[in-house]
Every structure is written in C-alpha cells, then in structure tokens.
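Hi there,

I know you've been waiting on this one. I reran it after we fixed the sequence typo, so this is the corrected version. Both the input and the resulting structure follow.
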Amino acid sequence: MSEIPVFGTPLLGVTYKPRPSAYALVRNERGEVAVARTPFACFLPGGGMNPGETAEQTIQREGREECGFVLRPLRFLGKAIQICYAEDERQYFEKHSAFVVAEVVGQDAKTEDDHELVWLAPAKAIEALSHESHRWAVEQLQRLG
C-alpha cells in the first residue's frame, strides 16, 4: 500500500484539529478543472465530511452548495493530508482529504454565495489552488489522461 502524502509543516506548540474531507476533480469538455474561488483562497469543490458521510456523498453535497453542480462520482483518485490554517474559521487543521474524480450531470442553485466557480486549464489550476494537496490531486488527474 502506498503512503499517503503529507503537505504543509506543523508549527511547534500548535494543536491541529483533524478534519476528514473530500474534494471533487471535475473537468469540462475543454479539459479545464473546476475551482471554487473564495475571498480567502482557491480550492477544488469540496470540504469537510459530515459524520457518517462518505467521500462521494461529501463531494455531491459540497459541489451543489459551492458550485451548483449535480455530480456523479466516477472514481477514487487518492488521499492526502494537508496541514493548514483556515483563515475564515481561525482554526488550524490537519485535513485528511479524499479526492474523487466526478462529472457534472446537472445544475442546481448554489447556496454558498462567497464561492465563485472558475474553470482553469490544469496548469493554471495548479498555480491558483491554495493547498499543496489540491495541486497534487490535479497532477494525479493529469497522469490519468
């Protein structure tokens, strides 16, 4: 079994809250990657998992909330850990993230007005994404073709 990559460096004396999370890798017909831009950062669509929720359920819920996507999960891409500080929550996290390739099968009204959907070429998405783990996931997606 391959090791789960860890991104970010923990600060001494800081307690990091574990947070299970899941993110979607969604491409459009031009091969561009969906990115959710917030006032604080750019992320893949997704976020924290609710208790009892699977990675697939999380990306479906978060994709709808953040981008208005109705998503169909296609395949599990991988896992990574991101050590980070969430500016909006003023909290340090150790995000245990699952990355799932998905496709848009419909549209719905998004509910998170501070999230803006932008479609970026993979290289531009890698430049824009705030978390190293998200950049890693896009690189893994590119290897799939």
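Quick highlight: Strands lie at 6-7, 17-26, 33-37, 42-43, 46-48, 69-86, 91-107, 116-120.

Best,
R. S.
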